[in-house]
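Field guide to reading this record: the first block holds the primary sequence, the second block holds the structure written as discrete tokens, and the final block holds curator observations. Each block starts with its own label. This record concerns DUF3299 domain-containing protein, catalogued under organism Gemmata palustris.

BLOCK 1 — SEQUENCE
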Amino acid sequence: MNSFRGRVLVGALAVLSLPALARAGLHYSGEQFAELPSRPSGFLTDQRALRAAGRERPDGLPSPLRDDYLAAATRLEKLAKTRALTADEIADLGAVYIRLGKTDSALNVLAPAVRKFSEHFRIAANLGTAFQLTGDLERAGVQLEEAVRLAPAKLKPFEQAHLKLVRLRLKEGKAANQPATIDDLFGVKFVGASGSPEAGALADAELKKLPADALVTVQQLGLWLPADARLLWQFGELCNALGDVRAAAAALDGCVTEFALGSPDLRKRRLVYRAAADELAKKPGHEQHRGTLKTKSSRPLIKAFDEALLPAIESDKTNALPWPLLAATSINAKGRPAFVKYLEQLDGKTVALTGFMQPVKDELAAREFLLLEYPVGCWFCEVPDPTGLLNVELKAGKSAEARKGLIKVTGTLVLNRADPEGYLFSLKDARIGEAD
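BLOCK 2 — STRUCTURE
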């Protein structure tokens, strides 16, 4: 195995070998999360995707994650017309409505059900979240108390943190609508030894107060409530406190650019962290790019892919190849892949997908490169999973210069079933076009 490819596959396989835990404070059986904490860049990517699923795209283009939630809602709605839904199905429908931003619909489903299924944990928890998102924090607190009582042991600490969050904001009153600070979840002041915000540092006295599971807790809350700006701010402060100023700057950038938070304290901190991150980016080598947080997964959201929702495969036409379909590939302890049936059927067919070019050699124009779902800031520090790499080989005699933006690649899909030293997926005789 060449050294470049070896670093990719060995590092990525180490990530995939970690156990997956099905947990969500927003309880939907169609979601599964990897063990937390996840790499900050992966967390921010998936949190943003969950946030985007909650609204229609303004450009009218399809949104794969939202489309999956819509399909799940449609299926359960049709089922409800033929028979009474089970408690688990009601919990799922309420959760899907919440993911889609339809909180009133979630309340209409969950509120009657909680009286009928008073001991059902997922219904209680989802209803508490629905009340919170509609602004009724008092009723949210009541329901989340029930969720804490009913929660399995593994989930209880996260439900307790959610309840604490709601109680803190209920106590704030109207001030919670225009927050000047983060939620005081841990009793910690996020300042350095000087008493002011410092890049990549937290005062020793404050660091001692910080619970060992603080980052896990905030990531979980952030996945349950992806449109909550203050949780994103809290995540950024934790990253900075634990030494990852690049992740801190990215999170606070999102608080300002995506959520337009106007807190003077937030904006001051953002300038401090961003300046430090920009200085790190100017330095040579890779150590300054490597995140300092100890993480257990590359991305938190494990996509449960529903093959029934995919279009029929056509032998004489170009078929769309969704990235989540590649991510659904599993790899056993011996490194052997198991492809889902739909992907097996695409093997040898013409497919197209969009992504970002990653050169494998230092050359101006190349005939072969990797295609990634998301751009990588530092290749050696943010190694994608093997299921997130697509090897592209252009048509004979063709080459392409490296591009930074999104591209569309069309070619013949080839699956690697036997060679442990090769990439799992390749596109042969490929051509590059503009992304749709």
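BLOCK 3 — OBSERVATIONS
DSSP finds 15 helices and 13 strands in the chain.
Residues 1-24 have pLDDT under 50 and may be disordered.
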